[in-house]
Amino acid sequence: MAFESFKLEIGPPSTELLEVARQELRETPEVRAAAVEELRKLLAAATDLNFPDDEEFLLIFLRPTKFYPESALKLMRNIAEFNKTYKDSLHNLMPADVQNVFVNADIINVLTNRDQKGRRIMVVNMGETWDPKVVSEEQIFRVLYTIHKLAVLEEATQINGVVVIYDFKGMGMKHVKSMSPGGAKRLLTFIQEASPLRVKGIHFINQPMIFSMVWTLFKPFVQDKLNKRMFFHGDKLSKLHEHVHKDCLPSNYGGSLPALTYGGKEWYPVAENHLDFIKKFNSCGFK
After folding, report:
1. Are 115 and 163 in contact (CB under 8 A)?
2. Could you say which DSSP state residue 96 is in?
3. Which residues make beta-bridge pairs with 162?
4. What is the chain's pLDDT, residue by residue, as a tens digit (287 residues)?
């Protein structure tokens, strides 16, 4: 797929996708209509929260909570709390604020194709392409946070979820020293409590010996549900392929697709195409 043709998939879900939603998320037209109505009532009663209440937007929070309105409201409250806690980093964060990291740092990439289960694939390079003197741990998180706002725009991604590949090839002590318990807590609180994305798998590859030092930062904050979705493959990419099939991966990761020829610089313009939605998402939180 030529990168120029890469756009977010904004269209309505296909019949096949709605069947996945029915099986995995309890989604039917009747359940959806009732849940949207109930969540609107709960939001109206939650006088300290500020969230848009159009159906399209509410689905972002109802799908990951399997259409239980009380659970969706709890997710919204968690998001408001997270945004308040990390206000200095995240308040009114726009793509232009992290454009430099998107464009100039080859750290985070989103593949143009999905995996065999229709999930978005994101790759985070935490080793040789990351210069901690140029890009801080916080800046990486700000990019991840920006990407998730774009991902939730896609109904296919709301339903199928995402997988993340963390590549530690070339990691050294300078990288380890640039990570902190606070940064680990922020990332894992976000993934587990304050993100509407369905994270279906986190895969660690090419970890060097010193990765154990990194893992001691993260392990205290990993809850049981996420722990079951974390996989450590080292340099055994065949293990990765058991979860993300070879024909969905570029040759960089032992896959049968061509090697990556694109990165953040090529897909950053997608973020600029959806500024209205990002502003809408930024408006969410406590009043």
Report:
1. yes
2. G
3. 120, 199
4. 344 457 899 999 999 999 999 999 999 999 999 999 999 999 999 999 999 999 999 999 999 999 999 999 999 999 999 999 999 999 999 999 999 999 999 999 999 999 999 999 999 999 999 999 999 999 999 999 999 999 999 999 999 999 999 999 999 999 999 999 999 999 999 999 999 999 999 999 999 999 999 999 999 999 999 999 999 999 999 999 999 999 999 999 999 999 999 999 998 999 999 999 999 999 999 99
Question: Of the candidates 106, 140, 129, which has an alpha carbon nearest to the alpha carbon of residue 265?
Answer: 106
CA distance 209 to 218: 16
Nearest Cα to Cα of residue 127 among 105, 97, 95 = 105
Q: How far is the C-alpha of 201 from the C-alpha of 189, rounded, in Å?
A: 16
Structure token digits, residue 133: 């003197």
Residues 6+ apart with CB under 8 A from 236: none
Tokens at 222, concatenated: 């990993």
Distance of CA 244 to the CA centre of its chain: 17
Q: Quick one: tokens of 119?
A: 């999930």
pTM of the model as a whole: 0.96
